[in-house]
Amino acid sequence: MASDLDTSLLRALAAVARHGSINRAAAALGRTQPALSLQLRKLEQHCGQLLLQRSTRGVTLTAAGKTLLPFAERIVSLAEQMLPEPASCAPQRCRVGLIEDVVSRHLPRVLADFAAVRPELKLEAKVAPGRELAAAYRQGELDMLIANPRLCGLEQPPAWSMECPLPWLSAGGAMPDGPELPLVLFAAPCSWRDAMLQALGLAGRPYRVVFESSSLLAVTAALEAGLGVGALLSDMAGDDLRPLPPDSLPALPPVPLALFRQPARDGDPALDTLSRLFFRELSRLPG
């Protein structure tokens, strides 16, 4: 019979995945580095697999660790839902800024789990381009922000960051015929648009813009209609949108995403939970 798994071991794995460092994860959890390392070794022994790859640049998850992470985050979240809230806990609100790409596929599960854990808390979500969100964050209008850190211009270090694949997609994964590549783009300013145009320019690939919009929904609809090719986060691929054949177009750089939170709310359990839930969902992006 399999032995029960201590949820604190799963919490340790999730913290290291978010912070990319055992030392930073230990500080966030209020533990010493040796104590956290011991927990991680216990978890690896329990699973019978290597979960972390250690290097001079930090700690990353192995394939087995990436597979386990969403389950670990989910179990930790469920464990927290079992704990009763203090009777004296006053109503709060949490103001979150999100770029549209995070909202499309990842927000429903985050909202459901967050509402189960903190039903008394009011959640306010502002969806806008990263630069607009960063301005609101600087004015203290947002408690938390998820966006491209290269575009935010924020000097504070993020609570966590990750890189997400950006594949070329088209209806059915078909490569269009013709001398000029029909492009479906986000309206400027957009780092994805810039990356696509730069990659095609460096490769000497002729193109023409057939559709552009600032709306993810509109760009997705144009791609699904077969107007041309474009680039979206990898989880947008499905029955209608599929990646182009390998090497048909120059590879695009991954998209950096980072979560920032106001220093004044460090240690806030509601923001801790929300940060962890978003990290769990975005970590599921296929690579």
Automatic annotation (TrEMBL):
Out of the domains of life, which is the source?
A: Bacteria
Alphabetized SUPFAM superfamilies for the sequence: Periplasmic binding protein-like II, Winged helix' DNA-binding domain
Q: Which UniProt keywords apply?
A: DNA-binding, Transcription, Transcription regulation
Entry GO MF terms: DNA binding; DNA-binding transcription factor activity
What InterPro entries does the annotation carry? LTTR, LysR_HTH_N, LysR_subst-bd, WH-like_DNA-bd_sf, WH_DNA-bd_sf
> In the UniProt record, does the keyword DNA-binding occur?
yes
Database matches in Gene3D superfamilies:
Periplasmic binding protein-like II, Winged helix-like DNA-binding domain superfamily/Winged helix DNA-binding domain
UniProt KW Zinc keyword: no
HTH lysR-type domain residues:
5-62
Q: Which family does it belong to?
A: Belongs to the LysR transcriptional regulatory family.
**In its UniProt entry, what is this protein called?**
LysR family transcriptional regulator
